[in-house]
Amino acid sequence: MNLKQYCCFLKDEGLNKIQVSNKKNSRDYPWEMYTLKELLRATNNFHQDNKIGEGGFGSVYFGRTSKSVQIAVKRLKTMTAKAEMEFAVEVEVLGRVRHQNLLGLRGFYAGGDERLIVYDYMPNHSLLTHLHGPLAKECQLDWPRRMSIAIGAAEGLAYLHHESTPHIIHRDIKASNVLLDPEFQAKVADFGFAKLVPDGVTHLTTKVKGTLGYLAPEYAMWGKVSESCDVYSFGILLLEIISAKKPIEKFPGGVKRDIVQWVTPYVNKGLFNNIADPKLKGKFDLEQLKNVTTIALRCTDSSADKRPSMKEVVDWLKNGVGSTWGEENIPTLSIKNGDEGNDKDDKLKNN
Question: How far apart are CA 291 and CA 326, in angstroms?
């Protein structure tokens, strides 16, 4: 089986059929057509010791090719129609995009019941690993690195929304889908839920995909997806980067609190120091923290029409992190005093 069989035409709701080149040596699509034997050898037969990640789609394995190139191989768990579509979408999207802040496609294999996608190996793993996982205690992400990651991820998304043809909505922006290369440069990954949006189309209505805590309200409730949904998810990610708080926290008695509810009282009271990740031990730029928090809350506005574009977010981040902002550069907030700042929140804020 080859790319043309799986990705020649991508069928989707409200989307025209989009043809993809299958020329292996095309300058636009420089992927490799791996054999199953090559990938079995590279991953030691998908040995458990080589597993570096797992999700609903299947597992990701570390591998090393015969030329000593380090790779990551995503192996789909089961061969269902849903998995087949996600495989086709991811190869389709990855074959189209070329940006320093997007994880590129090295190649793939499709044969029998195996669907394998090959990427560059990211030795510094995912943002999730550093914020909440086994590397969190090491705190390798100092403040400058966090700001660089935020800007890089924003630039990758801005490319998808504004420069790729057709435009692409990611639909699953979250910490585990931001990978880090040897220099801790952000690489937005996992395009299995992505939507390709034809020119002139402002939004699509579709089945809800993604991860709780990151979903824009209009998408979670009505399945209305647009580029603004990615902006919302990115705003949640920004708050997560600076605070190391999870998007949704669960407390005894079934109480839940999302990260916007947690941060809003601090912003209203001007207590920005309380927002920063304690593991930073105060080593951060307070003005930058204020600026980035402000941007994040603009991104997570409950009204999709009031959210900025990713182009605006990139400009704001670069101005707010790279230099001192003037008043004209600071996006304004419209947060009601006491919004989400109830007694329950005050009781939980030190947890």
Answer: 11
Q: How many helices (H) and strands (E) does the chain have?
A: 11, 14
Report pLDDT digits (tens) over 25-70. 344 456 788 999 999 999 999 999 999 988 767 899 999 999 999 9
Identify the band that residue 351 occupies on the pLDDT scale cut at 50, 70 and 90: very low
Cis peptide before 134 (omega within 30 of 0): no
Joined together, the tokens standing for residue 192 give 């299995």
Element (H, E) at 215: none
In degrees and rounded to multiples of 5, residue 157 shows phi and psi of -65, -40
Among 72-76, 94-98, 203-207, where is mean pLDDT lowest? 203-207
Give the residue range(s) of CATH 3.30.200.20 domains in the chain. 3-120
The amino acid that residue 285 corresponds to is D
For residues 291, 296, 301, 307, the Cα torsion angle rounded to the nearest 10 degrees is 80
For residue 24, what is the enclosing H or E element? Answer: none
Residue range 222-281, pLDDT digits in tens: 999 999 999 999 999 999 999 999 999 998 888 899 999 999 999 999 999 999 999 999
Q: Name the fold adopted by 3-120.
A: Phosphorylase Kinase; domain 1 (3.30.200)
The verdict on whether 172 is a catalytic residue reads: yes
Look at strands 32-33 and 105-111 and give their pairing.
Answer: parallel
DSSP calls for 64-89: E-TT--EEEEEEESS--HHHHHHHHH
H helical segments located in 97-213: 127-131, 143-162
Computed on alpha carbons and rounded to an integer, the radius of gyration of the chain in Å comes to 21
Catalytic one of 49, 120, 172, 305: 172
Multiple choice CATH, 127-348, 3.40.50.2300, 1.10.510.10, 3.30.200.20, 2.60.120.260: 1.10.510.10
DSSP, collapsed to helix, strand or coil, labels residue 332 as coil
Residue 187, marked binder: no
CATH 1.10.510.10 residue ranges of the chain are 127-348
